[in-house]
Specification:
By secondary structure, the chain is of the alpha/beta class. It contains 19 helices and 17 strands.
């Protein structure tokens, strides 16, 4: 009989195993369920050779590589068909850069228009490829559920290689090869790679099997793209993903891609100090803005161009689109806050407007979910008059399950994940959507969950030091599966307080340590009234915050990022 070891027993054993680490490091390791010296060494010291697996251990990799090499040898026309988001676009750039590097000219990248074509393969595009003499399509971050579309491609004489990371359905597409480690038969050591991560593994395999005269290790320069997507697509930063994100940030800090460098400059990112927060909050939204309000090819062109003038122009274009995106989201949120239909304690919110652009409604749904703590469905009118929308869960229900329980005919189509999704509906039945979803909600198992911030340790203001920061930074990059450490600072009184930003929607508190150092704490999109605490100068508060490294005008600053005030 297999015996289970209690966590207390593991911690007790770990105290001995980890005794050579500083006390805070030890606590952070234990909080991440790392109990042995061997595990700690691997986590704190990523190693490319050790942590990055053999691509040919992924199911069907050998078959996919053989087919692409044959296509290259016979000069077949190849299409790289990528998704239109922050995973599919960098993943498409990875394959673009590979073909360019080996001097292969008979390929093109195709990224579907978000509103006109939608997610995944579509028959109109496939038919245009066939007419153009294409014989091989390689997908990036899509295709795993496109059974009918792949069958249609086969009928037209096209082979399809699917590279994807989304959950396979019971019926797989009849593709020449499917590379997706979530397949039941796949035994690869990390089944949580993002779409660009899978594309990068394919390039690894192609370089290993092909004879292209490419310098050994060249594929590491593509890790800026794989790392961007690994961080932005919010896959767990464990195992190989941790190595891809870790080395991806290193490459990003040295990247010579003109468009990306220009984009970082316009976003206020000091490239040598770029972090995962910069990727998630500044780079990602600008890349995604292209598909939301323009064409995703603009973002692809920005990341793939080698021309400085083109890169600068595209960066400026995406910056303007992103500004417009922010203004549109803010306008809708303002409209919603003034709406008499918005009941504050509603558990399920369904709202929409035919004038709202579907491409930005995922952002609206997320903001609404965070503001109201409710499950949110937000819709607008897409091309052809069809209603299109996005939804977000507050953690109490699985959205796909919820939508599947709605009365037949409620949706034309729906899909997504447990926490986020999308849907389409006939404009004539949109008035039935709120009641249909509320009925489905009552049928769905509800799990009460509270969004909690885990506190790793209690510190004093004297602990806010560069030495302590460097200790914490060994755990970076942070993300899903490796959250940024949060600390409790008890009974500290702000000596000053102010709102800042263009519209005064950010909070700054300043504290004085016992040794007289001034320490700032920043809360973006926060105000003193958000916390239910008596926040004023001279009044002690309990602050939950993380450490943050900031560079402004080349001057480094160590500050705190506010998570909660008690």
């Amino acid at each position: 009989m297999q015996q289970t070891v209690s966590r207390d027993a593991l911690v007790e054993k770990a105290e001995k195993e980890l005794e050579n680490y500083p006390e805070l490091t030890k606590k952070l390791l234990l909080n991440r369920e790392i109990f042995s010296a061997e595990e700690a060494e691997k986590f704190l010291n990523p190693d490319f050779e050790r942590d990055v697996g053999d691509p040919f251990k992924i199911l069907n990799m050998e078959r996919a590589v053989e087919r692409i090499l044959r296509a290259i040898g016979q000069k077949e026309k190849i299409v790289v068909y990528g998704d239109y988001d922050m995973d599919g676009i960098p993943g498409s750039v990875i394959l673009h850069d590979f073909f360019k590097k080996i001097g292969y000219e008979h390929f093109k990248n195709y990224i579907p228009h978000r509103q006109d074509e939608g997610y995944g393969l579509n028959n109109a595009a496939i038919e245009s490829f066939a007419q153009d003499g294409v014989s091989l399509v390689v997908t990036v971050d899509c295709g795993i559920s496109d059974v009918a579309e792949v069958a249609h491609a086969n009928e037209l004489g096209l082979d399809v290689i699917i590279t994807d990371h989304h959950l396979p359905q019971e019926e797989l597409p009849p593709a020449y090869a499917v590379i997706n480690s979530k397949q039941k038969e796949d035994t690869y050591h990390d089944d949580m790679l993002c779409g660009a991560g899978v594309a990068w593994k394919l390039v690894q395999g192609l370089l290993r099997k092909g004879n292209f005269g490419v310098p050994e290790g060249w594929e590491k320069w593509l890790l800026d793209m794989a790392g961007l997507s690994t961080i932005a697509d919010m896959v767990p930063l464990k195992r190989e993903n941790r190595a891809i994100a870790y080395y991806g940030l290193k490459v990003l800090k040295k990247s010579r891609r003109p468009g990306l460098v220009s984009l970082m400059h316009k976003a206020g990112i000091a490239q040598p100090y770029a972090t995962e927060d910069d990727v998630g909050f500044l780079i990602g939204p600008r890349i995604n803005a292209a598909s939301r309000l323009d064409h995703p090819l603009r973002a692809f062109e920005l990341l793939s161009t080698g021309d400085e003038a083109e890169g600068a122009a595209l960066a400026d274009h995406l910056q303007k689109i992103n500004d417009r995106r922010k203004a549109l989201v803010a306008s809708i949120m303002k409209e919603l806050k003034a709406s008499h239909d918005m009941v504050p304690d509603e558990k399920l919110i369904v709202t929409g407007n035919p004038d709202w652009i579907p491409g930005i409604l995922g952002l609206v749904a997320n903001r609404l979910m965070e503001d109201r703590g409710a499950i949110t469905f937000v819709w607008g009118r897409g091309n052809g008059g069809v209603i299109k929308g996005s939804c977000r869960s507050n953690g109490t229900v699985n959205l796909v399950e919820l939508m599947s329980r709605a009365e037949p005919g409620t949706f034309l189509d729906f899909g997504g994940h447990e926490a986020s999704g999308g849907f389409s509906a006939d404009v004539r039945s949109i008035h039935l959507l709120p009641d249909a979803l509320r009925a489905a909600y009552e049928k769905t198992g509800i799990t009460e969950k509270k969004k909690e911030i885990s506190i790793d340790d209690a510190l004093s203001l004297e602990d806010v030091s560069w030495e302590r920061y460097r200790e914490i930074e060994r755990f970076a990059p942070f993300g899903i599966g490796n959250p940024k450490p949060h600390f409790m600072f008890k009974g500290i009184a702000p000596e000053s307080m102010k709102q800042f930003g263009k519209v005064g929607d950010h909070l700054e508190l300043a504290f004085r340590s016992d040794s007289g150092r001034r320490i700032r704490a920043i809360g973006f999109f926060m105000s003193p009234g958000d916390f239910g605490a008596d926040i004023r100068t001279g009044n002690p508060i309990d602050l939950v915050a993380s450490f943050e490294y900031s560079v402004f005008r080349d001057i480094p600053e160590l500050r705190l990022r506010i998570a909660r005030i008690i």
